[in-house]
Amino acid sequence: MALALLLFFINGAKFVAHRRLQDAEGGTRGQLGRVRGAMEEYLKSHGGALPPSVKDLEGLRTPPPTLWIGNEGARASVPHEPTIESIDVLSLAGTDSGKWAVVTSTSDKDHGMVFIDCTHTDSKGSRWDSY
Question: Which of 22, 31, 83, 96 fits as disulfide partner to 65, beta carbons 3.0 to 4.6 Å?
């Protein structure tokens, strides 16, 4: 009986940790949508010109969201620290910086696209830079 109770608590703790991870990942994907929407508005209102960085997006109305891939329980598999920084890249090919990335090449069909520059996978097995 004690063994069954112990296994119940261990499995319960694993379930809670997995649920927290999924919630954090969903929040990150939601923030990506928010940043992309602000970038679309910025591009429209500035004739296609890009802002100096994600921090300068006027449509966010608040500071850019902190990019946090995973949570404390998942830090070993995703080594990036939380950040609001962004980098400029020439295409959707990521560099695994763990930052927001913006495609700046005017000749690239994805000009202005914001993505998460992380080649690690989420709990569903999808690379963060694939969203």
Answer: 31
